[in-house]
Amino acid sequence: MNKMDSESSRHNKLESILQDRSLEPHSIALEDLRKITNNFSEEQLLGEGGFGKVYKGEVQNGDTIAVKMLTSTMLGIKAKQFENEMHHLMRLKHPNVVQLVGYCSETEKVLVEYNGKYVYAEKSEKLLCLEYLPKGSLRGHLSDESSGLDWDTRYKVIEGICYGLHYLHEEWKVTPIIHMDLKPANILLDDNMVPKIADFGLSRIFGEEKTRTCTTSRDGTLGYMAPEYINKGIITKKLDIFSLGVIIIEIMTGHKDYPDEDNTSYQKFIELVLKNWINRLEKEPGYTSREIDCQQIRRCIQIGLDCVKFDRTKRPTTVQIIEMLRFRPTTCKIIEMLDREVRSLVN
């Protein structure tokens, strides 16, 4: 086979892998990834974080993928980061979890200067090929109640994140997966604003006999990390639940602030958020679904506040969260509840 035939064969293989998402993730050659990202050019850069950069890869047939290149190091955390993410993503299949479509792990010899001389050294490249999510991360879509995404969209985003996390914690085939760095920047959105949980670089799998562990490192993002993790390095599924609560509050209000844990502060906060949303919703022409929306708003903000409780044992599980999202009180109860709420807000 000549060089042109070989290149054509590789391109066909790459295109078939990207077209059939039902296939198991395949190894993709570094040379091919260089071509579809224009040699990892700045023009193709989608974003970057502590562990590497993400590039837009454009295949000849028009398909697009996201190529995550981990920061090059000989040994240590970056290699572990790749192995961890590969291990999880290769086996995860859920509409609210980002899908891995391929990967690359190659070592090449490069010429480097060492003690005044040029010598060949081995350079390891590790990359993940992920589905491309055109709307970017949730972080770029956050705003307060008065502007930005409408309530229906925000509710669907909250639902999707909860279902994705429920899959990781409870529905995963083997053992629970704890994400450990859940935040808006790690939640990507597709064309229909469907959220997908991404970046499992800090994830850890726990066996049934090991539901809790401690760590001396504090990898994660301040503002979303649970207090027991910051103070004692304790890792349980409730760590992710705390992060989820902050995200829900941020989706609904545009900020991460929440009240102290006393009943009066909680109720005032809920009433304020509900009032702000009623003010916006009532301005929409032909608006008729106040009862349903107010029910959802109250329920979501309550879930958010329950998730950020200081005592992790008082935070709900994803099973309980899904039950709360699915709860549908009777019409009479909704009207009765809302009448009381509206009267209190007016007064």
TrEMBL record:
Identify the species of origin: Arundo donax (Giant reed)
Q: Which PANTHER family match?
A: C2 CALCIUM/LIPID-BINDING PLANT PHOSPHORIBOSYLTRANSFERASE FAMILY PROTEIN (PTHR45707), PROTEIN KINASE DOMAIN-CONTAINING PROTEIN (PTHR45707:SF71)
UniProt keywords, alphabetically: ATP-binding, Kinase, Nucleotide-binding, Serine/threonine-protein kinase, Transferase
Residues the record lists as binding ATP: K68
Return the Pfam families for the record.
Pkinase (PF00069)
Q: Where is the Protein kinase domain?
A: 40-327
What InterPro entries does the database record attribute to this sequence? Kinase-like_dom_sf, Prot_kinase_dom, Protein_kinase_ATP_BS, Ser/Thr_kinase_AS
- SMART domains per record: S_TKc
> Could you say which residues form the signal peptide?
none
Query: Source organism lineage?
Result: Eukaryota, Viridiplantae, Streptophyta, Embryophyta, Tracheophyta
Per the record, the similarity remark reads: Belongs to the protein kinase superfamily.
Does the entry feature the keyword Nucleotide-binding, yes or no?
yes
Which Gene Ontology molecular-function terms are recorded?
ATP binding; protein serine/threonine kinase activity
* UniProt-recorded name of the protein: Protein kinase domain-containing protein
